[in-house]
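Batch job 17 of 40 flagged for manual review because the log was empty.
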Amino acid sequence: MGKRFLKVLRYVLLILITAALAVVVLWFIRNHKTEEYTAPVPAVKVSRPETGKIVQSLKFNAYVEAQSMIPVVPFVSGTIMEYYPKQGMQVSKDQVLVEIDKTAYQLQYDQAAAAYTAAQSSYDRIKKLVDVKAASQQDLDEVTAQKDAYKAQMDLAQVQIGYASVKAPVSGTVFTVDSAKGSIAAQGNLLCTIADLSSLVVRVAIPEKYYSLMSSRTGQIEATVTHGDDSIAASFSSLSPYINPQSKTFVLELSLEGNLDGFRPGMFVNVQIDYNKIEDVPVLPLSTMKTDGTMYIYDPDTQTAEMLDLVPEAQDSQCFLVPDKYKDSQFITDGQGTVFDGQSVRIVE
């Protein structure tokens, strides 16, 4: 009987303790006040648009070229007796560059000269006979024709003798050397090339989609050509009137201006073509825009951020054009990535 009583007593005590704990927990829940979390107001920096300029440009690669590359070729054939060109040598117009063996042409001249002298004597004799009616006009015409033919042969041989001394057609710098003393010069084959290094150009191959843009702005085009640490200005020279059907590109030629000492034909260069310049307009740096193109202005009356879904009319690699209606607005330029439209913000310096 005693054991049963003790067992019942333990159960009663357990129930009373559980009930007491439940009462304590319920009282705590009813009387505990939950503290509400208030997020801090985001801190942002603001800036007003500044007066600046937009320079719209395209960038390409190209090679420097001499504006004129003149091939030197002989008009007669023969063994090269003297060959003077050397790469980099400065030459003047009509300077003798190559001497071709003229022996054969001299012999042809001598032969034609002898025949001409004989024909001239025959002409003089027949002419006197015609004057006294001792020869016919036909005889005079025949000897005249022979005399003129030999004169033409003599003149041709004289010209060939002159061509045997190959001269520089223009002043410039010997760019390539393509023969040597003792080799055979063939009529029309290259002996050397002369370049005018005082006039250098770049011919830029541009995709066809830009043709209308470039052709409509030829008078506004300015360019900068860069090789390593050297940069030089370039101006518009010419625009190809057609599109290459294979490469789908057209050629824009730019003339290098200024000191050309750092540039030589064949150099690989970077070309920045500035095709449009808008000056004295309100601008802001591109960093003002978020990656999705949106931006925020600060409303000082409500101290909140207002989102603008604005597509700039013009921009370059550094800044964008701000519409006149927003030229006096305060744009959020730092911290815009953590705010949303209508959110309260505080301004920090």
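Reviewer: the log was empty due to a logging misconfiguration, but the result itself is present. The chain has three domains: 43-51+280-347, 58-67+195-279, 81-192. Unflagging and moving on to job 18.
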